[in-house]
Write a structure and sequence with these properties.
Helix content: over 70%
Radius of gyration: 17 Å
Number of helices: 7
Strand content: under 5%
Structural class: mainly alpha
Number of strands: 0
Length: 204
């Protein structure tokens, strides 16, 4: 199906690869392509971690792989944000862009060779389409939130500072630090509840 989750994820991967290739081949394109690539990566990652990875862990029984993939997302996001602060014509940028590209392509290869086939095998076509809709909606929300807060001084992922709400990534990182089991299967509200419970217990 054209709008199933696997098709949407691989389409995002190809578009991100296209932007990376353009930045590598044509320096004049970097100033325009870099913010777009960073925004696309972060929205894709946030939507995938909130909507796809919990299903991958629970229904495809790939919990360890989902957790590893989330860690790769976070690494790639950090590298992308570092690039935003660099001179796009510098040798430092060239090296950082190569590192970022390698990290993303490694993640894409692992995901498309291992995780997505496991997801396709475990889920029905109807479930894959349902998951695709949830992913697309969350990705759109993430992109809209990032644009709404573009230029914020804190340098954090766009949209995450509306009020005091934390992103799933922030909650996931806290859950990892607190050694909360099963964190990769949890959606954002479940992570928030478990983190709150663990932190409250630690204050006693």
């Amino acid at each position: 199906m054209a709008d199933d989750v696997i098709t949407l994820l691989t389409t995002d991967h190809r578009e991100l690869q296209r932007l990376l290739d353009l930045m590598s081949e044509d320096r004049s394109f970097r100033a325009l392509a870099l913010p777009l690539a960073v925004a696309m990566l972060e929205a894709h990652s946030e939507a995938e971690e909130e909507q796809v990875y919990p299903v991958l862990a629970r229904e495809a029984r790939q919990e360890e792989q989902a957790e590893h993939a989330a860690e790769e997302h976070h690494k790639a996001e950090r590298l992308g944000r570092q690039l935003l602060d660099m001179d796009v014509d510098s040798e430092e940028f060239d090296r950082a862009l190569q590192e970022w590209t390698s990290a993303i392509l490694h993640h894409v290869e692992e995901e498309e060779n291992d995780l997505l086939p496991a997801l396709r095998q475990a889920l029905t076509p109807a479930r894959l389409q349902e998951l695709g809709l949830a992913f697309a909606q969350r990705r759109s929300q993430a992109l809209a939130g990032r644009h709404a807060t573009a230029g914020g001084a804190d340098g954090e992922r766009g949209g995450q500072r509306a009020g005091t709400a934390e992103t799933r990534k922030e909650l996931y990182d806290k859950a990892r630090d607190l050694d909360i089991e099963g964190r990769s299967t949890m959606k954002k509200d479940e992570l928030a509840e478990e983190v709150h419970r663990a932190e409250a217990g630690g204050d006693d």
